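Technical annex, item 7. During the second reporting period the consortium partners agreed on a shared format for inverse folding records so that results from different sites could be compared directly. Each record opens with the tokenized structure and is followed by the designed sequence. A conforming record, contributed by the partner at site C, is shown below for reference.
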């Protein structure tokens, strides 16, 4: 692995490499961005390069530091873990505060990588803050989080923050095409579903569950007019509990109706995203009016937004299904 093998995030990588080159390393960094966007990969590459014995802007992969890093045995790179839902003050005490007084074993820096740092509770954050206020010369912290607003302002003010944006579709598409040897159309489909997250793309491509969920969502879309009230409630019962699956179903349904709408208007299969489902898309397009398809897309996008808040999923789905079935 090296910086140039990391997908995307080029500006951040350039910044990091020029800080290393100019020997302007801060004691604390935050990498923030959605799940699967590449925070941990980037943090690890940063840490490995900082402690590489070649002291260059890319790690050498050959020195003892790099080799022990690759086998997860580098004593000067510490991954702070947590067993409970939150990162507690005892996690920070035992893994950071007790450890930081001991100088690095053989490397220039002692680097603490705190994944899911936004799960630190207030006591844990305050304990970490004390360390950040008077850091040992050799200590570096890399905090990873999805929501940096959960961190104390006093912590934020001591860190250099990098915001990792969702990766562009074409980058993920090319990656999937090369890595998994799948054709460009399939790769495109998965790149859309992964919504800019390389972690999610990797997970979806190997998931039979995702394929099953997708098939049943497309079935719902195909049969939406024929579903009676009992069917609707049975479907709601099946999907309302698991929020992750529910989110996936809403995403799929949105794409299905979006594709049907686009096909109805343009009659060009090239414009649709789920090209492997062209037959079903044509059927859905044929059975509904343009207005119906627009309304269905609107209803789904509204449901997707509501799901971000802790709304009652039963109510959300009832409203959604009634809108989807509207004539
Ligand atoms: Zn090295």
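Designed sequence (site C submission):
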């Amino acid at each position: 692995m090296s910086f140039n093998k990391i997908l995307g995030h080029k500006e951040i990588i350039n910044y990091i490499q020029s800080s290393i080159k100019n020997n302007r390393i801060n004691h604390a960094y935050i990498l923030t961005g959605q799940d699967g966007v590449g925070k941990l990969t980037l943090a690890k590459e940063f840490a490995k390069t900082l402690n590489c014995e070649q002291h260059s802007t890319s790690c050498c992969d050959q020195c003892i530091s790099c080799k022990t890093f690759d086998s997860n045995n580098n004593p000067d790179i510490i991954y702070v873990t947590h067993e409970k839902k939150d990162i507690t003050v005892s996690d920070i005490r035992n893994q950071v505060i007790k450890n930081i007084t001991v100088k690095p074993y053989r490397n220039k820096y002692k680097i603490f990588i705190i994944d899911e740092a936004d799960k630190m509770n207030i006591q844990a954050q305050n304990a970490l803050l004390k360390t950040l206020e008077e850091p040992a010369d050799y200590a570096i912290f890399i905090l990873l989080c999805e929501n940096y607003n959960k961190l104390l302002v006093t912590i934020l003010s001591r860190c250099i923050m990098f915001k990792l944006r969702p990766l562009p579709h074409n980058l993920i598409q090319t990656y999937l095409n090369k890595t998994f040897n799948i054709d460009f159309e399939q790769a495109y489909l998965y790149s859309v579903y992964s919504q800019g997250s390389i972690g999610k793309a990797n997970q979806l491509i190997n998931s039979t569950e995702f394929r099953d969920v997708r098939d049943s969502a497309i079935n719902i879309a195909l049969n939406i007019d024929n579903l009676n009230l009992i069917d609707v409630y049975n479907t709601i019962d099946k999907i309302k509990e698991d929020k992750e699956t529910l989110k996936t179903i809403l995403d799929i349904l949105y794409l299905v109706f979006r594709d049907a709408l686009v096909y109805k208007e343009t009659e060009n299969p090239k414009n649709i995203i789920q090209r492997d489902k062209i037959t079903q898309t044509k059927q859905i397009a044929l059975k509904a009016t343009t207005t119906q398809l627009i309304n269905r897309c609107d209803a789904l996008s509204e449901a997707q937004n509501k799901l971000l808040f802790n709304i009652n999923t039963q109510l959300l789905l009832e409203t959604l299904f009634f809108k989807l079935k509207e004539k």
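The mean pLDDT is 92. The two ends are 55 Å apart (CA to CA). All partners now use this format for quarterly exchanges.
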